[in-house]
Amino acid sequence: xxxxxxxxxxxxxxxxxxxxxxxxxxxxxxxxxxxxxxxxxxxxxxxxxxxxxxxxxxxxxxxxxxxxxxxxxxxxxxxxxxxxxxxxxxxxxxxxxxxxxxxxxxxxxxxxxxxxxxxxxxxxxxxxxxxxxxxxxxxxxxxxxxxxxxxxxxxxxxxxxxxxxxxxxxxxxxxxxxxxxxxxxxxxxxxxxxxxxxxxxxxxxxxxxxxxxxxxxxxxxxxxxxxxxxxxxxxxxxxxxxxxxxxxxxxxxxxxxxxxxxxxxxxxxxxxxxxxxxxxxxxxxxxxxxxxxxxxxxxxxxxxxxxxxxxxxxxxxxxxxxxxxxxxxxxxxxxxxxxxxxxxxxxxxxxxxxxxxxxxxxxxxxxxxxxxxxxxxxxxxxxxxxxxxxxxxxxxxxxxxxxxxxxxxxxxxxxxxxxxxxxxxxxxxxxxxxxxxxxxxxxxxxxxxxxxxxxxxxxxxxxxxxxxxxxxxxxxx
Length: 477
Known about the structure:
Elements: H1 10-16, E1 22-30, H2 40-55, E2 68-70, H3 78-97, E3 101-110, H4 121-133, E4 138-141, H5 147-156, E5 160-162, H6 164-175, H7 179-193, H8 218-255, E6 260-265, H9 271-279, E7 296-301, E8 307-312, H10 322-327, H11 329-337, E9 340-346, H12 352-365, E10 373-378, H13 388-392, E11 397-398, H14 407-417, E12 423-431, H15 435-444, E13 446-453, E14 456-464, H16 465-476
Parallel strand pairs: 1-3, 1-4, 2-3, 4-5, 6-8, 6-9, 9-10, 10-11
Antiparallel strand pairs: 7-8, 12-14, 13-14
Helix pairs in contact: 2-3, 3-6, 6-7, 7-8
């Protein structure tokens, strides 16, 4: 098994190479809060989204489709169920990104988690029946499971049990292409696995290095722990080397000051599509979640003729595992170093505000909330024309990466947000024979007026303060 794949459980990785796995999804809503309403057009659009999801195999009424169930004890207003349904629909997209086929969905709402199984003994029996009837290979929980809960569920269910973090780690392992990405995924996998070694039983034998490498019982468990700890130290050392290389590359870039603008946002908000539209880079843009893991940098030219580096980064998601934020620190350094952040949001999502809060939570962990941010509402080509006026009034820039609409306004906004080297208007006088200076002005500034007097050229320009200063200093010499 490749090192950047989850070592546990083995049958999850092996059967995935043979055929799509059949998965039962379990959504868990544990909350004592009252319902929250979503009034007006947004609520109507959310309801329509629900119907569309149901039509293509989402959560339906118990009597409508066999195998797609809601919990008998689900209570509360429709608005509360809407949030739970949206969470389960998003989880379904994650499962599809992992290459599995969803055969049934179960939603359980409880006021408090069951310490032994999270969802309660009765619901476990129900899920066991559903899994057996649908010949399921996996039961996937849209919630993190403690080691005890995972062990108990594996004993009572007839197939492999995985939680939300394990699923996201597996998707990251599938999409990691560079050596750096593979190292970061493996680090996150091992950090997640380490406290869950106890109780894994025979499956843990797949971690061994050969015959006779360990004895039974605690000897095997302690050997596993030592091997993982040793591997973690090695991975952290390699990633520190990556960090040093990135620092050296960044120092070379900063010797010729070029500001960096980073794209951030919820997964599948269209960041890579927008990156391609602005740069013409042709990077992978997929509707699958977490299609982009490795950062990409490209130069773009702004209306002021300034050049900036645009960075495409990994998408964020609800309850993003903390181990991933830590492991991908080297990748996310581009976000930390950027002068301006472009927060790309899906204008067609009925849950845009919730996704925004999740992105800001991760940005808070990275301590970059104080950076200048431009909100970009992407996918406006999917929004009805009647709602466009409402989008423009929300203080964000509406764009469509697919059609190119709004790109000029976005580039102007980036221009205005760059404060490290602000744009200024200036009057310059240059000798007509000074071709190098005139070429630099043409390449790096917007010429507002030009007048020839004898052997001199008088220019009124708008450009970066640093370039204006260098040209004035050169003229004085």
